Amino acid sequence: MADKQYRITSSMTHGWKVTADVRGHKMVIDQPSATDEGANPLETFLFSLAGCLSAIAKMAARDEGITLRGIEIDVTGVLNPAGLAGKPSEDPVGFKSIDATARIDADLSDEEKAAFFGRVCHRCPIHDNLLRPTVVTHSA
């Protein structure tokens, strides 16, 4: 298959609000201590993982002939804010750990649900980006 490229352009003009138009959808990232018009970047990052896992679960269920009535995913990230605040820390600046827990509404045993969710995680691009280094470049 040919590579597919995804691109967004964001804008921050005043305050802490960052906006983007993504395929006609207005997205907002903000800080709770500012105008609180959207989730903060870290919450958005965790939501992206949950959203991707949910979509992949629907695809995988279709591919495997599983009737998936619904899925809820809790994602918890643990972060030491020292690095984010510019203070010295032995911890990474990003999340130290991320835990994703799924509640799957399907006619599967607990063991089958766990195996299914494992396959879902294996197919999820965002999950994969968290497990393996991705080359990220930056310029100004």
UniProtKB/TrEMBL annotation:
Matching Gene3D superfamilies: 3.30.300.20
Which InterPro entries did the record assign? Answer: KH_dom-like_a/b, OsmC/Ohr_fam, OsmC/Ohr_hydroprdx_reductase, OsmC/Ohrsf
Provide the protein name: OsmC family protein
Q: Which organism is it from?
A: Ferrimonas balearica (strain DSM 9799 / CCM 4581 / KCTC 23876 / PAT)
